[in-house]
Task: structure prediction
Amino acid sequence: MKKIVTLITALFLLVSCDETFDINRDPDALPPGQANSTILPAGIAGLAGAQGSYYAIIGGFWSQFWTQNNTSNQYKDVDSYSIGTNDYQAGYTAMYDALNDIRVVKAQALAEGNWNYYLIATTLEVQGSQVLTDLYDAIPYTEANNVNILQPKFNTQKEVYDLMIADLKLALSKDLSASKGDAPAADDFIFAGNMTSWTKYANTLLLKLHLRLTEVDPSLAQSGITTLINSGAAFLDVDAAMTQFEDAADRSNPLYESDRRQLNTTLNLRASKTLYSYLQDNADPRLGKYYGAGNPNNQGDFENTATGLSLVTLSPTTPVFFISKEESYFLQAEALSRYYGGTGAKAKYDAGVTASITRWGGTTAAALLAAGGAYEFPATGTAAQVEAVITQKWIASFPGNGYESFFEQSRTGYPKVSTVAQSSESYIPGQFSVSVENVTGGKFPKRVVLPNNVKSRNPNAPALKAITEPVWWDAN
Result:
């Protein structure tokens, strides 16, 4: 089984896809502070490795950033929506291995009254759990990673969301100035101990959780968001990310490491017509940064015999973003559009688009955002404004956060779904199209099915649901 390897400052820590899954560390058996200084780095690296490889691959296909190369077979199961119970078991295990480390830190920090590490660990616990529950629906949460419980119960997704929101609020309520014990520093691979940034990260994650509920529980979404914003909460204006990657074996970005270096090929991922055509149609400078020369392929048309198809560009030093500053701006823009009559939404939207284009070396954001520009923010209409925000969040999620734009498309319906095949002359650039080689009767995937290594070991696991079955918050 492949290892997901991530760089951590001057040292390198291997995060293995361990098959045992039920290995738990007992925080009571650790000396004070040891969980913080030695286990937190493993937890951060583990989350970055799992999200940045397994789920980045799936998200890129299902957000239609890329499609399977027509001369190779590596990801046909993902592109055709045929992921089964024997697929991606390692990703699920790796996520819970990382959460185990993080929960050990959280338990010891709580026992010590170390509110700095408590906030860090809680934020990371919710970060990983949010990705898992949005992919799988019901997951273990209250009994997960408990040394005394090897067969944890599964919480429903509604329960998980209620618990994540409550946990973040509790952590944010702690007085960081009264924190006891060691302060985070080099062991914090995200902010190097900057607790102001951690508070912003937790607030931004709380905003994301409430926005995810707009269709299934509009009242809770609105009350949670307005309470948060009206309190004067500060949100991320910097990246919550791991950035310490190098162009070297076992030290590079996990998506690059797993797809390019470990598979020893650059040919697996070809440009999807969906995103490629949208960028091309709008003269977006990110087109040449995301994709190489050539033409895109229709999504999932991996039996196509065409030559000269555009390759996806990946870099070994791209950060793994937990929440980028772009995503933070777009989350704020959507909230302001929905609940504040759009006041301030344009400024946040423009900041998100500008940050993304600038990140990729572009200098034309102002022209695209100006009156009459391709990306001008709609002056009125909540639906139109939300569509603009979610569309730009989709573009900015490339390459490693496609699972987030997949969730958002399921929640909002944006980008819209094409009524014609991508091979049609009337296809509208940027509209989602079901994979040509789909095995789901023309339906889009809505979840990843629970892996067999969990179903076979835990009698509390829920009944399997089809990959096309929506998760709880997906009311579209």
